[in-house]
Design a protein that fits this description.
mainly alpha; elongated; two-stranded antiparallel ribbon
């Protein structure tokens, strides 16, 4: 494990952060569990599903980086990790919109009220995780330019 960490530190950190992200909405930093008055799930339910998928994507991308052992794959992995971090921040915060509650009946976002659990617990934690993902991806990109291929 230590040899892998020395060779691919950002990928190992990416795997750990991806696992934390995947576990965050339904385990670590719970989204709202109440149902809407019409019986459907709250908006943050779809955000939770999105975050689980993005966490799994981060884990898979960074495992591929480690297994491939090529600089070009590591570069691509870092770029995909950076894009994932941006999406993890932008989509739940409605900078990039997926779904529309009025027309589709669902959307990926946090709930509207400041008193909701997803606003108080999930949102700050996910925003911090997104920032960490972006930082490790940028460090990985810089590191790849500084390291010569073996």
């Amino acid at each position: 494990m230590s040899k892998i960490f020395k060779s691919y530190p950002m990928a190992v950190i990416g795997i750990i952060i991806g696992a934390i992200l995947a576990a965050s909405p339904f385990g670590l930093f719970h989204i709202c569990t109440k149902l809407r008055p019409d019986g459907g799930p709250m908006m943050c339910h779809y955000t939770g599903k999105f975050l689980v998928v993005m966490g799994i994507v981060l884990v898979v991308v960074n495992v591929i980086v480690i297994l491939a052992k090529k600089k070009s794959i590591a570069n691509l992995g870092n770029i995909l990790t950076l894009a994932s971090g941006v999406l993890v921040y932008a989509i739940p915060n409605r900078i990039i919109k997926i779904g529309d509650k009025m027309t589709d009946g669902w959307q990926v976002s946090y709930c509207m009220k400041d008193t909701m659990m997803c606003i108080n617990k999930t949102k700050p934690a996910v925003n911090l995780i997104a920032a960490l993902i972006i930082v490790i991806a940028l460090i990985g990109i810089i590191q790849q330019f500084l390291v010569k291929e073996a």
